[in-house]
Amino acid sequence: MTMITKLQRSCLRSRQLHTITSQETIKPSSPTPPHLKTHNLSLVDQLVPSINIPLIFFYKYYTPNDTTILKKSLSQTLTSYYPLAGRFVAPNFSAPQIDCNDQGVEFFEASNDSQLSDFILKKDVDETMDQLIPSYQVGGYKNHPYLAEVQLTRFGCGGAAVVVSMSHKVGDGFTMGSFINHWAAVARGGSPKNPTFLSSKCKFKIPEFDLKGGDEAKYAIKRFVFPNSKLNELKKKVNVTVVNPTRVEVLSSLIFSCALSAATTVSGCLQPSNMFQIVNMRKKLIEQNRPDIAAGNIGTLAAVKIRKCGEMKLNEVIYKLRKQIEEPKEVRDVDEIGGLCLKRLSMLGLNFGCRTYIFSSLCWFPFYEVDFGWGKPVQVIVGNGVFDGSIIHFMDTPSREGIEAIVKLEEREMAIFQQDKQILAYSQDNFA
């Protein structure tokens, strides 16, 4: 075990003391079989940004004895999620493969003298929240080889936060949710079903698609809660021309419209812009008869492009997104999904200066069922994935009575966005 003693990080804004108490590499409890030692990245794996997505699970109760159970069950889980314990074959992803060499994932332990409520009631996802994320401790995502990391932080009130940070190159939100729920089930003594990692048949490398666009800028991340009652009002407004719009459809369209308005106010004119909605394709996979256990990046993009000035109607955005989500009806394998992604990206004619807004919905994923043996989380938050671009994550609220949107925009645009009349009308300023 590698111990990091008295590594203290102080956040002056909240005057809290955060201390890393230990760091340990957790390896799979059983070696990966020879026929699974090499995992070929699919076209979609290669296209997604080189970022880690951190999920923060807040728990009201925790006892020190639970740490041993966490580590042991994580080790057992890594035998099923073996790519996470591996390493990329070459640095900078120059080879589209993962060497599943069982080198393990990093497990940090930390203490924080603040209260649980200091985090779950916080609107800003800033450096205070970053302290809970493991990559923050080792200088950022690009400075280390780990494909997954965990940090357990104990709070002064007796509660705790468990953070799982996973490379997007290995899997999507569905894969991450499956991994965490599998780990929690093992910690409780269960025997969950093992996943199937869908490896690509193609071995050639394609360049990672730059979805950021525009100049370097400072970004702000804020949380917004949209109650179902307000979303139902918005659905009725749109339902005149769109049949049975969903919560995610109307909220994505609303936020995109308001974000574009804020960007136009800051720049003085409408810049060419794209909206990407990540679409789960598991149920359309012909080769996989168990879509619930398929692991990897198994999704494509539904896109809307804006090139001309003028008021954008919410129903028009929903119509364009829905048409792409419904097509095709089925796909053979992950390589066909990758080809679909490339086709849609090329049709957009992306170029430097084109603004991109990425929407990802984690609604209905069983994140609030992640029980390691001391109860279900009271709050789950998507942390900062250090992606320099505009990205919006949706999650269910703890009560399931609304959607929490974690919105990342340029700082000047965020200042305007959060005061937009429509955002104020459909959101609530209360995280309790």
From TrEMBL:
Keywords: Acyltransferase, Transferase. The keyword NADP does not apply. The keyword Acyltransferase applies. InterPro entries: CAT-like_dom_sf. GO terms for molecular function: acyltransferase activity. It holds the Pfam family Transferase. It comes from the Eukaryota. Belongs to the plant acyltransferase family. This is Transferase, Chloramphenicol acetyltransferase-like domain protein. It comes from Ambrosia artemisiifolia (Common ragweed).
